[in-house]
Every structure is written in structure tokens, then in C-alpha cells.
Amino acid sequence: MYKFLVADDHPLFRDALIAVIRSRYEECEILQSEDITHALDIADTHTDLDLILLDLNMPGMAGLKGLLELRNQSPTIPVAIISAETNKQIILQTIAYGAVGFIAKSAPRDKMREAFEQILEGHVYLPADIIRAEGDKDSSHRRQDEPHFSPEMLHTLTRRQLLVLKSMAQGAANKQIAYDLNISETTVKSHVSAILKKLGVHNRIQAVVGVTNIDFDRYLKR
């Protein structure tokens, strides 16, 4: 049975989010907090939490300081951000600070459930529409520390690997990719590992960020 902590200062949103969680994990235990101080106390007491869903704009958060405090205090408990934030660099920074995913508050219920599943399976979740945030589509604005894949690197990928990478860039979880491509989830995981190795990155977030402006159809036509 999974155990969640929902940390958000808006009671109505907490109730809505809890309803989404229970629609997928009916028997789970859900704790609640409306500020970072209480969230820290709960995490300290309940070390068996499977996932903390953390709002960026709660009282006491002070930007990303609250996330850092939570990660430093309870490094073994996964923390996913659930927020209305749309700034791409801030969102990517939450991942750099140790969050295992970012879920937009505007996301449909099925996307939220997909995000929970992916995170609880040990993956990092970052929706494609956040990666393609307005104002970051022009490659001339690409940060130097963001990965860039040359055509030669992408040509090393097989057609099936390209299809998997394209689905990853669209925010699909392994289970959905397996269903769409009619292959097993184990095979998808093998493809993802091969993709990361060929592209020289350490996780799927780096891979997805690096293909933000890639025309997959161009490579799939070969």
C-alpha cells in the first residue's frame, strides 16, 4: 500500500489531488500539509512515505529553498513538484535540486495518474509541454549546459529507438510506450537504456531536453 504526502496550501486543490490519487491507488494512505514546516515534520516522522507531492508556492517555501530543505532532511523520500509554475528554467532547476518529477496543476487527471505511475516505478517525470515552454523554442537561446545531439548521434539510433525517444519527448511513460508500439515494458526499458548510452546522457530528462527541437520524421524516413 502506497503512502503519500500532499503538501499544498489550497484545501480545494488538495481535495482534488487526493481524489485523483485515490482513483488510481484506492487503498493508499494520504497525509496532508499546508506549509513547508508541517511537511518537514511529517516527512521526519513518516520515513516510509513513497512520494511527497510538493507545491512550490506554499507558505515558507522561499522559492526552491523548501525543496532543498526537504531533500536534505529526507533524501530517501521521492519528492515531485506539483505546481502552476510555467518558467522552464525553474522547472528544470527543481529536477536539478533533486525532485523526481514536475506535474502541472493544469494537467488532466489521466496525465497526473500517468505521472504518479512513472514516478513510483522509479522514473523521472517531466511533461513535454513544459520542456517546450514558450520562449525557449529558439535553439539560439539554448543554455550551454543543456545537451545537444548532432545528426550523427541521432543516426546511431535504430528506428525503434527513435520511436521510443519520440514518445519520451511527448511525455509518455514506459507503460504507454509499450502499449503504443506493441512491445513489452521490459523491451522499452532496454531501448531507453540504449538510447541514453548512445546519446551520452545519464537520464531520460537530459535526453528529452536535448531533442526539444528535433524533427523526428526526418530521421524516421531513412
What does it look like?
The chain has 222 residues and is α/β, with parallel strands linked by helices. The protein has 2 domains: 2-132, 3-Layer(aba) Sandwich (Rossmann fold); 151-221, Orthogonal Bundle (Arc Repressor Mutant, subunit A). Helices cover 49% and strands 10% of the residues. It has 12 helices and 5 strands. The protein has helices at residues 11-24, 36-45, 65-73, 88-96, 109-120, 128-131, 151-155, 159-169, 174-181, 185-199, 204-210, 216-220; strands at 3-7, 29-33, 51-54, 79-83, 101-104. The model is unreliable at 134-145 (pLDDT under 50). Residues 3-120 form the Response regulatory domain. Keywords: DNA-binding, Phosphoprotein.
Descriptive key words:
single chain, 222 residues, alpha/beta, Rossmann fold, Arc Repressor Mutant, subunit A, 5-stranded parallel beta sheet, Tscrpt_reg_LuxR_C, phosphoprotein, EvgA-like, DNA-binding, DNA binding
